[in-house]
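ok so for the tutorial part 2 we go from a plain amino acid sequence to predicted structure tokens. step 1 is just haveing the sequence, like this:
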Amino acid sequence: SSYNSVAKQLQIIKVRANEANLAGKTMWATFKEKLTKFTGWMSMTAAVSLVTRTIRSMVTDVVELDTALIDLKKTFKGTESDLKNLYISANETAKQLGVATKDILEQASAWSRLGYSNAEAAETMAKNSAIFRTISPGMDLDTATDGLVSMMKAFDIEANDVLDGIMSKVNIIGNKFATDNSSIVEAMTRSSAAMAAANNTLEETIALNTASIEITRNAETTANAWKTNFYCLYVQKCA
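step 2 — the prediction. this is what the tokens look like for a chain of 239 residues:
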């Protein structure tokens, strides 16, 4: 009968399973066991790979930090203790603002080369660059630093006045008008010296650049136009 045929087939399967040392285990139990072993192997492989990548990343980070510190020491006017404290402060600032510690140290080095070489000045300006970058989508740290340098020098703004005297003013305009901080800073970087030489204030220069950027949608074109026109009209007296 059909029942006897099926029973016979089941008996054959059981015998073959015993021969394969699989007696007492269902097909799914066996599959699960193999899968677990495979998953375990994969997990171990992934773990080893993760550790390897982490170690390589740590070595790279250490080298980059060491390079940044060596560069900073070239122009830094402070003691080893000052440098250590600056590193600790840079690490905390980096965590707060979501940037790498080496980036803060590199900005401190950049500001140090510009004459802001004592511990307080280098730390303050490096932090200002990082804050400016954080509140300005699309702006990197170097652009933030270049913009601040241009505006500070052109309009005689001291380090302690940068936060309220430059950054806040740019950020307010960038948030209220059809432009952004990055475009304003690009225009200011290119035009500040000429505009200041023509007796324009920082506020006037920001306003003029912003109004033009809203029309041209191009910070470079805007800055070059204002720079050329004002320099010719008020400084060089172009024909």
